[in-house]
Amino acid sequence: MSATLSTTPVTDSAVSHGSSGARPLLQVDDLKKHFPLRGGLLGGVTGHVYAVDGVSFEIAKGETLSLVGESGCGKSTVGKAVLRLFDITSGQVVLDGTRIDTLPNSSLKPMRRRVQVVFQDPFSSLNPRMRVRDILAEPIRNFGLAKDKADLDRRLNEVMDTVRLPRDAITRWPHEFSGGQRQRIGIARALAAEPDLIICDEAVSALDVSVKAQIVNLLQDLQRKLGLALLFISHDLAVVEHMTHRVAVMYLGKIVEVAPRRSLFAAPRHPYTQALLSAVPVPQPGAARQRIILRGDVPSPINPPSGCRFHTRCPYVFDRCRVEEPLLKATSPAHTAACHLNDLPPEQNPLVRDGTPFH
Q1: Is residue 59 domain-shared with residue 132, that is, in the same domain?
Q2: Model-level pTM?
Q3: Which SUPFAM superfamilies does the record cross-reference, listed alphabetically (predicted)?
């Protein structure tokens, strides 16, 4: 991903968070999803994949929270759990004050209208046997949003205008569009349901650099215009830096740091976050940044390490890390991190050497 992504960064103050007393749109508490492993002659459970193992976060109305981390860390599983694509192992998912993880399937329809998704692959997420009109009309019909055919046509024209596609393209088939145009159709399909929250699961990772910038700008414009909340799942911190209000960093099924965008990019307080940021291309030609190379491989989610799950790769590991799991603690207002180093005085904390934050 090029560092020259041309977008308009959001401001950290664009939305208010839980500290204001306002009820969050989405609240996830201690979410766990453990997938059983089966084997042997009788197909019994031989273990579990701890894909998500105690994740908590909130999203305010009109806010973008980016969930970032390496492939396999569990971030897409979190998105699918919020969407109720499967039952969770434990925890709670609350949408605008209503707990949705325990709702029976017969009661999920109102929730599904309010929470929509934009998938990673624009080529496989659209039915090749349906024209664009039918693709966009499907959620409108499913949720009973149009009074009659004239109202349906008006809504379809509006949503095509909103994603900046020509109205006459509505009669075409998905294969007649480029990747960026297909992703606009995917966004239009999500918008057609008039949602409050859109989950973007690697929504720009399959696109070219210039097209990424266009889609990111579109999502930002839609958020400002419609007051949408976004859960933006991505491994691309160069994109995240331009479009998010807050960032939650995941590692091996757990969130290890949560902070406003500016705070996290200027002064990360977890070694894993530091390593991720060190790999982001520097926008100024000739500028230097010390790259942090993590040793070893990501441990298996079937048998995660004891103590801090990052200790097997951490350059600052000490004895406490191997036996005691760190909790998310505040390191500054609105900034939390799960690292024992933050319990040390600043002069002894390698994450804040000499009081100087990471650059």
Answers
A1: yes
A2: 0.89
A3: P-loop containing nucleoside triphosphate hydrolases
